[in-house]
Design goal:
Two copies of one chain form a homodimer. The longest helix of chain A is centred in the middle third of the chain and has 24 residues, at 139-162. Chain A folds into two domains: 3-134, Creatine Amidinohydrolase, Chain A, domain 1, CATH 3.40.350.10; 139-366, Creatinase/methionine aminopeptidase superfamily (Creatine Amidinohydrolase). In chain A, 36% of the residues lie in helices and 23% in strands. The first copy, chain A, has helices spanning 3-14, 27-34, 59-65, 78-89, 107-116, 129-135, 139-162, 169-182, 245-267, 274-287, and strands spanning 21-24, 42-46, 49-55, 70-74, 96-100, 121-125, 187-188, 193-196, 216-222, 224-226, 229-230, 233-239, 299-301, 308-312, 325-328, 331-334, 338-341, 344-348, 353-355, 365-366. Chain A is built from ten helices and 20 strands. Chain A has a six-stranded mixed β-sheet with strand order 4-3-2-1-5-6. Chain A has a four-stranded mixed β-sheet with strand order 8-9-12-20, with helices on both faces. Chain A is an alpha+beta fold. In chain A, helix 4 packs parallel to helix 5.
Chain lengths: 369, 369
């Protein structure tokens, strides 16, 4: 990763935003800009260079990880160190505007920082410069996300080995997470969803102690963090007889979601807006009479964070660019009954997109073992 | 959990803080006050009652989980719904002060909220009322933390079955996490630390792909979330010959940390300050000539969050009360060589404390298998 170039890119935008400096404290932004992977740090970017602040717990780690910035170890609270560093270098007479990450800095942190700054220094809410830069992934980032997606896909194969009626949802999740760890994942990118029976109608149904019942769907939504980058994938499996009346109804909903997902993927290419991709999925479900059961947005960006820009939702004007990585995950939910969701990760390309999730999306029914 | 009583407790403090209402958005505070376990919500507490806001993803879940508050589903952004709700009920002429959680609300969220509020409504940074209430655990909470600590302890036994020279750190972590999941843990309370060789000198050395070398310590610091509550425990194991020159030196450091940990535990009781507990550990290490290698604080509160109030650190004036649950975890670190840390969870009682971590702290050496 070319950390100095990423910092330079932000530094070059400071003047246009009428900022003399930017204080970055959001951890994924720090990792993106200078490689730091710990849990406490701040990066001060000025036209003249970068200074990274962390506390004594991360002294060794910061010196080995941080690239393109001078490392300063705070002997007290991190923001105090930043404030004092600025105060010691600032000429009293000079006006100086320090940009802050308004979406991440808390009200209390802003107040503490402001109290430490010398006269002449003013805080301003900066635009989301780093998040905007992070939207378009470089080749090395795409390779990492591809590896994460490939590892993620192997977990679903593992899940299918244990997913049967009577097995607890968490037993399926535990198998997947164990395999992920041994294969080198730092952790799961979010709490694993294995939602069966009526729980499959909960879009965020974390794996529970519930035994998987027959005659319903199981939604498996999961991802790993590998090399710092997230994967995100959903597959939904029918448990029971696929040729029964219930099975036929399930299949109808499943095929509707699958068609919607494929329509959205077909709509992804550079220069299209995120809202148009969302609309493509919604249109298919509406035509199938399932539109009102699709209660969330179609997708989101993925990278160092599991949810990042752009949002792929109704009316979103953000124009897709080559190198953006987004999820496409329509679903339909019948409260008290069951739900279906299918999700892939795709990379936006010039004339279309590349699907990173290698798993089949054919309707799959699991019978009693 | 008596959620209505918890809400009432906060409501009764509003007037003293010169607040007409408090907007709670920090997720652990929401779980504490009304039982909601999802990832997006806000609770508005006024003298007249409580209203809980969430988005459509959590409609079913909120109606089944939330106690003591009316549930409102936001059709747009959550804070917009809160702002509109207040605007629709507020009499223009009346002055009304809404407290916000300054340590959690971001600068941007505060700005968006302020823009939606009608004239007469003013925002004020509220004291950390909910965090203060959460410091003292009730009997049901202590039972949950005890269960979490007991499950956590079984993971260390599991770790010892696989921890040998040549085994990768992540293989040990994977075993522990797999066992935790099957036993009902929702997730680990933080990324599992299995730090061997020179990595044991990193206080936050997450399990890596590094094979465990002989002739060094392995620090295992781990916890589970069970029933919503966290456990936190550290044990350090010597890998290699305990009777060698290196082994003797290791043992000296280990016994120093163990004595310091026991001295800190002996200092814990109601009416003592957190700073006094920290000082007790520090004094023992200083006498052993190890004081300068103890580079972090002695402990922290544990409950719904892995790190919560009170801090157990040098100079902390917070007075311990019966029912507080804290960690005691001194350690010494020799950069490039190795480190040692020992950590238990204890409940503050009137004349002393109760240790919740059942694992032995005797020096333990693991030889090649």
């Amino acid at each position: 990763m070319d950390f100095p170039a990423r910092q330079k890119n932000i530094q070059q935008r400071l003047a246009v935003c009428r900022l003399d400096a930017l204080l970055v404290s959001h951890l994924p932004n720090l990792r993106y800009l200078c490689g730091f992977t710990g849990s406490a740090g701040s990066l001060l970017l000025t036209g003249a260079g970068s200074t990274f602040f962390t506390d004594v717990r991360y002294e060794t780690q910061a010196h080995s990880e941080v690239k393109g910035a001078k490392v300063t170890i705070a002997r007290k609270a991190l923001l105090s160190a930043v404030g004092e560093w600025i105060a010691s270098r600032h000429k009293r007479s000079k006006k100086w505007v320090l940009g802050i990450e308004a979406e991440h800095l808390t009200v209390a942190e802003r107040k503490r920082l402001a109290e430490l700054l010398p006269a002449g220094v003013r805080l301003r809410n900066a635009p989301a410069l780093v998040e905007q830069a992070r939207m378009v992934k470089d080749d090395e980032e795409i390779i990492r996300i591809r590896h994460a997606a490939q590892l993620g896909a192997t977990l679903f194969d593992r899940a299918l080995k244990v997913l049967h009626p009577g097995v607890k949802e968490v037993e399926v999740a535990a198998e997947m997470e164990y395999a992920a760890r041994l294969a080198g994942a730092a952790e799961m990118s979010f709490p694993t969803i294995v939602a069966s029976g009526a729980r499959s109608a909960l879009p965020h149904g974390r794996a529970s102690q519930q035994p998987i019942p027959a005659g319903s769907f199981v939604v498996c939504d999961f991802g790993v963090i590998l090399g710092g980058y997230c994967s995100d994938q959903t597959r939904t499996v029918w448990v029971g007889d696929a040729s029964s009346k219930e099975g036929n109804e399930a299949r109808f909903a499943y095929e509707g979601v699958k068609d919607a997902q494929q329509a959205a993927i077909a709509a992804v290419r550079a220069e299209v807006s995120a809202g148009e991709v969302d609309a493509a999925a919604r249109k298919v479900l509406r035509k199938a009479g399932l539109g009102r059961y699709f209660t969330h947005s179609t997708g989101h960006g993925v990278g160092l964070e599991i949810h990042e820009a752009p949002r792929v939702a109704a009316g979103q004007k953000e124009v897709l660019k080559p190198g953006m990585v987004i999820t496409i995950e329509p679903g339909v939910y019948f409260p008290g009954k069951w739900g279906v969701r299918i999700e892939d990760i795709v990379v936006v390309r010039d004339g279309g997109c590349e699907i990173l999730t290698p798993t089949s999306k054919d309707f799959l029914a699991v019978r009693s073992s």
